Amino acid sequence: MKKTFWAVGLACALAAPTAAAPRPSIESVLATLQSVTEFDGTAISPDGKLVAWARKVKDASGALKLAAVEVSTVAAPAKKPRRVTAASDGRDHDEKWPAWSPDSKLLAFRSDAAKPGQAQVWVAPADGGAARQLTHVTGQISELRWSPDGRSIAFLFVEGSAQETGALTAYKPDAGVVEETIDEQRIAVVDVGDGRVRQVSPAKLYVYDYDWSPDGKRFAAEAAEGSGTNNYWIAQLYVVDAGTGSARSIWKPADQIACPRFSPDGKEVAVIHGLMSDEGSTGGDIWTVPASGGAPKNRTEGMKASASALFWRPSGEILFTEHVDGDEAVAALDASGKIRTLWRGSEVVAKFSAAKNGTAAAAVRSSFSQPFEVVAGPIGGWTAVTRANAGIHPLWGKARSLTWTSDGQRVQGWLLAPLDFDAAKKYPMVVVVHGGPSSAATATWPSRWTAILPSQGYFVLLPNPRGSYGQGEAFTRGNVKDFGYGDFRDIDRGVDAALAAAPIDPKRLGICGWSYGGYMAMWAVTQTNRYRAAVAGAGIVSWQSYYGQNRIDQWLLPFFGASVYDDPGVYARSSPITFIKKAKTPTLVLHGDRDSEVPTPQGYEFWHALKTLGVPTALVIYENEGHAITQPKHQLDRDRRLVEWFDRYLR
After folding, report:
1. What percent of the chain has pLDDT over 90?
2. What pLDDT score does 62 carry?
3. Is the CB of residue 488 less than 8 Å from the CB of residue 402?
4. Which of 5, 137, 408, 549 is the most exposed place for a label (fewest CB within 10 A)?
5. Hey, what domains does the chain have and what are their CATH numbers?
6. Three-class DSSP category at 565
7. Separation between Cα atoms, residue 358 and residue 47, nearest integer Å
């Protein structure tokens, strides 16, 4: 029945061609993908009448490392948004983090127009006019937030640092005596009137996120002592005095927290709390903590979804976005614990912002069929305020949400059909496993492998196995001390569901992924011969050696329960190297040479083992790349190699 549904549904949507259409070249697919305009953040004004966002801009190398701030009215968007810039030279710069003043009359933003590579805080009139530079500092600036009285702007500041924060950034190569230099990210405040800057939070604390109290006298801060890159997983919830800078921990959570926000009356702080493997990839339950200290309360206990961002409303309701069974949704939580779904769809509304007054919101919206656009308006009744990608169309077929049962649990994933699908044919399929593991494969506009493979005639399965967001916190915790076992069974049964739903050749299956997805590709080939080819990007072959090589070892403790020195057995149990002699599958290994999150020796170790055992393999190292491959020439090489590898073994 399922197989018939797929065949009929796609046969109606895409008429079967009389002759096989030639595949578009990888270069042409990448050119189309690179022509897509992307956006980095939205900010809707407190009165809900204006919306600002950052549009990503390519630098001289073609990498999306610059940005431009643009503004539009919500009610009557102009065909061409108005650009807000600090530049007078007509050139592109790195301008982002737009933030509205409480009265909606001024827009603050970060710009490096005065000196490339060194951003400062600027403000511009909302109705147009020249921008004014406020700060003259040296270091990294992000996350601008106005004080409630509109007299100051707070921001996160790493004094003296020229390196972007975060584990994805390519690390500086070691030389000489190896020492750890800790650059703390602090809350700083600039006076809008005279430009004076003072650092507020303690010098020993690294602040990840923060919020002003309604009276402007305190900050709620998600922070940790020591290395910001490594200690996110042990961050606590603090209240920081905005005047003296003294900080007091009000909650030491069992797992990770994100998105600390003061209640309208200043009596509580709400956070998202759950098992999270990466800062910025947020999912969990909503908890509230008394601002004066006291017992925290789980306000969404048992929710079969994962909250991803939250916003207090003046009424005391909490507005939040969520991952739910493959979809995304916006919901409201009242004081009694009742949750109302305001909107839900098989698409993505990222970079969500909500107006302080009224019901307007803004987001970057996308789906499998529609590329990114900024939207604004009443929740669920948004209208597009950009048309940047109106002429771009999918290079893949129809997407379908699949669900299946694994070990008694509901599991969801997405099955993406090939371009020019013909229901009378059998197709190869590649499983693309998401990173994290605390993350989700969502119904967003595909990029890279997810887009290229179906353009080349492959079905693509995007599973959300246990450990993913979207089914509740218990499901997200389902892979603790069990990497490679329950989650891999979920993936394998997802393959069975895909085979039952679509004309896929079971003898032409592949698997690939990056980071945790790369680990799952390595794990798969040591557990089964079901997959005829694999590509492992930045994967982990040995959790034992990885523990001592990476620069973020704190993330392992919530997932393995102890350090490798205290419980080596739990790490060995989930390591592909433990079972390496079972591997027979041809595997391509890809890695950045300056990856601090998954160091390059992991790739070498896996490649060396396969080569020694006579398994077809190749290792490609990308120079000056971190955990994310950012240089366009390397992206093209990586993607071409992936397709060539699967074509060699699955065609």
Report:
1. 88
2. 85
3. no
4. 408
5. 140-168+181-312 (2.120.10.30), 394-650 (3.40.50.1820)
6. coil
7. 7
The 360-366 sheet, strands edge to edge: 348-354, 360-366, 373-378, 383-384
The two beta strands, 205-212 and 197-199, are unpaired
Ramachandran angles phi, psi of 387, nearest 5°: -135, 35
At residue 8, the pLDDT reads 32
- Residue 194 one-letter amino acid: D
Are the C-beta atoms of residues 320 and 307 closer than 8 Å to each other? yes
**What does the H/E/C string look like for 108-158?**
EEEECCCCCCCCEEEEEECCCCCCEECCCCCEEEEEEEECCCCCEEEEEEE
CA pair distance 342, 279, nearest whole angstrom? 27
> CA–CA separation, 276 vs 259, rounded Å?
13
- Return the structure tokens found at 444: 């967003």
Kindly report the length of the chain: 651
Spatial CB neighbours of 364, under 8 Å, sequence gap ≥ 6: 39, 42, 53, 348, 349, 350, 351, 372, 373, 374, 375
CB 341 within 8 A of CB 319: no
pTM: 0.93
33 has pLDDT over 80: yes
Task: Report the chain's terminal Cα–Cα distance, integer Å.
Answer: 28
pLDDT of the residue at 17:
38
| 277-287 per-position pLDDT tens digit | 999 999 999 99
pLDDT of residue 541: 98
Enumerate helices (H) and strands (E) in the chain, giving the number of each.
11, 36
Which H or E element spans position 473?
A: helix 473-476
Computed over every residue of the chain, the mean pLDDT equals 94
What pLDDT does residue 16 have? 39
**For residues 462 and 416, is the Cβ–Cβ distance under 8 A?**
yes
Residue 479 in this model has a pLDDT that exceeds 80 = yes
How far is 207 from 195, CA to CA, in rounded Å?
22
Res. 162: pLDDT tops 80: no
Percentage of the residues of the chain whose pLDDT score is greater than 70: 95
Concatenated DSSP letters for 147-201?
Answer: -TTSSEEEEEEEET--SPPSTTSPPPPP-SS--PPP---EEEEEETTT--EEE-S
Cα radius of gyration (the chain)? 24
Could you tell me if 551 and 598 are in contact, meaning their C-beta atoms sit under 8 angstroms apart? no
- Contact between residue 257 and residue 237 where contact means Cβ atoms under 8 Å apart: yes
* pLDDT above 80: residue 180: no
| pLDDT beyond 80 at 528 | yes
What are φ and ψ of residue 505, in 5° steps? -80, 115
Q: Is the pLDDT of residue 3 over 50?
A: no
- Residue pointed to by tokens 């939207």: 375
What CA–CA distance (Å, rounded) separates 396 from 638?
20
Is the dihedral angle over the CA atoms 624, 625, 629, 630 positive or is it negative?
Answer: negative
**Any long-range contacts for 192-197 (C-beta under 8 Å, 24+ apart)?**
192/106, 192/123, 192/134, 192/150, 192/151, 192/152, 192/153, 193/151, 195/133, 195/134, 195/135, 195/136, 197/135, 197/137
CA 208 to each of CA 126, 220, 223, 269: distance values in angstroms, whole numbers, following the listed order: 28, 11, 6, 15
Are the C-beta atoms of 49 and 377 separated by less than 8 Å? no
CA 159 to chain centre: 26
CA angle 193, 216, 241 (to 5 degrees): 110
Q: 632-650 and 26-34 helices cross at what angle (nearest 10)? A: 140
